[in-house]
Amino acid sequence: MAVEKILFVDDEPNILEGIKRQFRREFVIATASRGEEALQRLKSEGPFAVVVSDLRMPEMDGIQFLSKAREISPDSVRMMLTGNADISAAMQAVNEGNIFRFMAKPCPSDILSRSLRTGLEQYRLQMAERDLLEKTLHGSVKVLTDILGMVNPAAFGRAARVKRYVRGVAKLVGESLGLDAGAMWQYDLAAMLSQIGCVALPPNLLKKVFEGGSLSDAEQRLYDTHPKIGKELIANIPRLEDVAEIIVHQNLHYDGSEGPPGARRGSDIPLGSRILKVVLDYDALVSSGSSTAAALATLTEHTDWYDAAVLRAMETLVGLESQYEVKKVSAKDLNSNMILAENVLSTDGQILIAKGFELSPSILRRLEHFAQNMPLREPICVLVPAQKPEPAPRAEKGMLVAG
Known about the structure:
15 helices, five-stranded parallel β-sheet, disordered C terminus
């Protein structure tokens, strides 16, 4: 279990030293004397279970700090400890920083200790609930998308392909922006459910889309409705409201061009939507026959359409793909460490599982069932982590290496 840390922020060093001495045997405590310093510690040393801030501090007061701390580390339980307690300050702190406790100086050590313990308990409850939520939702969505991927490999094969990229880009962008890693599950689910609205579209239209065919104006308008349909399908599921917002905005251009009147633009577009836009456009180009280099070059020709930080992260991630190598294996040698590099086809050309799927036990079982009723085209192309060459043995000092 990870160590639960508490961060105290106060511009008076004597107070910080006193708190550390008083509670060093009871809690793991870190300190900062300025709001900016504390924000940096949240980014580089987090997560912190509890954050306690003074109110009156130079440069950045406690209300401003705790509001920003909430953005960086939303799971941290925030408290205020101040000698300038008044009703208006308390109300502002609660409203803007979502404060769990507001305590006045001087605060007796037993009350402060009890408050910190209560804060740690609240943090544990939050993390337990989130862990249950993530595992339950993620597992349920994975089963759903695996089934849909078998029913409609074209649409949901695309979701499987982009999930890997969205996860990687979100991690890279999150590291540069100091985002809380605990929020990454939303981007994962948004990728998995990004094509869910396609269930309402005609199969012949989807076939045309995913084979790179040109669409009429009427067909394009119909296809463009799938993000809105996707949002409507999942918006009423508890705790998936933010995921639904990511899905409905997945096709918006960053500069607002070609969007409907009043559409979001720039940083007002959810970050997950900005990531999906880059990844989906890249996937469409590669699926239509472009090389990875050509696809990236095409994206960079339209930089106004994309968030620059997300586009840079995508370029980095594609470079990391060189760490995978393509292998051809028989169906019996498939395992859950592999990613399909090509569609799995029956001998009559029917797509059984689309390329891009990360093989899971349920997918492997499904392929076994297929193979019992219809022959598969073998070998099957998969991506596997590239084997790093073994380092050459070092010669001992004074010894000659033969050869």
